[in-house]
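Quick log. Single chain, no ligands specified.
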Amino acid sequence: MKVAVMEGIGHIEIQERPIPEIKAGEVLIRIGYVGICGSDVHYFETGAIGDFVVEPPFVLGHEAAGVVVALGSGVENLKVGDRVALEPGKTCGHCEFCRSGKYNLCPSVQFFATPPYDGVFQEYVSYDASMCFKLPDDVSLMEGALIEPLAVGFHAANQADAHIGKNAVVFGSGCIGLMSLLALKAEGVTDVYVVDVMDRRLEKAAELGASAVVNSSREDAIGKIAEIAGGYGVDIAIDTSGADAAINQAIRMVKPGGTIVCVGYSKSGKVTLDMSVALNKEITFRTVFRYRHIYPMAIAAVASGKVNLKDVVTDKFMLSDIQEAMERSVSDKADIVKAVIEVAGEC
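-> predicted structure:
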């Protein structure tokens, strides 16, 4: 099979590797599409994210969907020909976090494309059948690959107790910001406003249903949201940027008793907060690390038409063009909102 292998910072090449063998409880999947995540771009560009350091050769990619082509012994929930989305984190199942249902916090998780575990920019992968979720006939494989970032958006919305009657602001209109927008709307949030500094991304947020968008490089975002939202501000703020400025703007935008959900990582790993304002408002801060128990909800939201994933994608590349795809994802961040790699397509 063909595999896109990162041989060094900024360098990926297509290589041939054997098709993986399947073990008991696993299925062999022919990959249809893989999304390019911001983490893939960061590893490609810098070779590391915090304590996670790439040691080449390494395979990127964790947002995947494909078709089951073979079954390992003991697999009963899937059959050959099933189209599936892959939840990319395999956990131990035995630690206190797994046993309590918070398996996304498992310290022994093996997550695609997180060193030292290879990802799925490749034609085939063998994977635990319990982490493969069947897609309805009316959900495409490309949409299936985007269930992973959508799950992050739903987890953020759930952390904020999002529901009808509330309003929200989302900072950042990259992929995760857009997924948070879509999740908030699917859960009934009445108005969702989006703040960013890139016009192309804000245009995409407006296309996907944002009630209003604000370019904070040209406008007073705090004043604008106060004017639009009225009253005491918004109930919910979700930050996907990780920027000090955004989180501190969120502190001033949310109502007293409001909730801020932090999703994005800052470049330094540290954020300085205007705590006096946060304390006076008795703000609740929540954080997000991936997701848990979300895939069925996210798939159902897409299948029902509550979430439009197709229009999130702005660019598509073939697996053979992976080097160009990653280079452009680095150099053209303002215009490439979400890119996907077509491996076998709608196979």
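Residues 2-146+313-342 form a domain with the Quinone Oxidoreductase; Chain A, domain 1 fold (CATH 3.90.180.10).
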